[in-house]
Amino acid sequence: MFDVNSSKLPNLHCAVPFMKPVHMRSPVPRGRRHTLPASEFRSLSPEDAISVFEIEREAFISVSGECPLHLDEVRHFLTLCPELSLGWFEEGRLVAFIIGSLWDQERLTMDALTLHKPHGTTVHIHVLAVHRTFRQQGKGSILMWRYLQYLRCLPYVRRTVLMCEDFLVPFYQKSGFKVQGPSDIAVGPLTFIEMFYPVRGHAFMRRNSGW
């Protein structure tokens, strides 16, 4: 489980190699057949919310019985801060995604689960999920790698935080996250470990192809 000021818009020249924001996608010329790209990374929009929630629900309900974000919360964050999301599409089909928002404190609190703080410098990753038919292919770690490199292009982002269950700690450590300690947040019987990644001042990271 894991209205932005104009001064906080991403440096698009830097961001384009990793993902293409929705508003930059080229229109389809009239009279020409549109062929979907085999693989595309882009920020998500509220129109993607149902696909996002279907993948999330299947991924989390069977394991923990809880979804990090409910459908209305998915729409909420994709409306307020779509630039802090990243979706991986294969031939137009969403296969994996990350949703984040801005936070303005050192540690996460219950408010961080539902709020977006426009003046924050920390990205809180709410959820990373992969469609069941695309798991065990390394897509989760590849997507996280791309997301972290994209965040390095946003001048206002200083660090990234998330919370996860114990068994996921090694996965996030392979992506460069460090353990900050037990989270103060609990959801029912579930407890979490809080982890962070220093976006600024962190050496350029190579993707670990073993995940």
TrEMBL record:
An example of a Pfam family matching this protein is Acetyltransf_1
What SUPFAM superfamilies would the database entry show?
Answer: Acyl-CoA N-acyltransferases (Nat)
Query: What UniProt keywords are attached to this protein's entry?
Result: Acyltransferase, Biological rhythms, Cytoplasm, Melatonin biosynthesis, Phosphoprotein, Transferase
Concerning its family, UniProt says: Belongs to the acetyltransferase family. AANAT subfamily.
N-acetyltransferase domain boundaries = 39-200
Keyword Acyltransferase on entry: yes
What is one Gene Ontology biological process annotated in the Swiss-Prot or TrEMBL record? circadian rhythm
Task: Supply one GO CC term from the record.
Answer: cytoplasm
- Gene Ontology MF, one: aralkylamine N-acetyltransferase activity
Has keyword Acyltransferase?
yes
The protein depicted here goes by the name Serotonin N-acetyltransferase
Assigned EC number:
2.3.1.87
Extract the PANTHER family matched here: ARYLALKYLAMINE N-ACETYLTRANSFERASE, SEROTONIN N-ACETYLTRANSFERASE
Which InterPro entries does this entry report, sorted A to Z? Answer: Acyl_CoA_acyltransferase, GNAT_dom, SNAT-like
Q: What is the annotated localization of this protein?
A: Cytoplasm
Q: Which reaction does it catalyse?
A: a 2-arylethylamine + acetyl-CoA = an N-acetyl-2-arylethylamine + CoA + H(+)
Pathway linked to the protein: Aromatic compound metabolism; melatonin biosynthesis; melatonin from serotonin: step 1/2
- What's the superkingdom here? Eukaryota
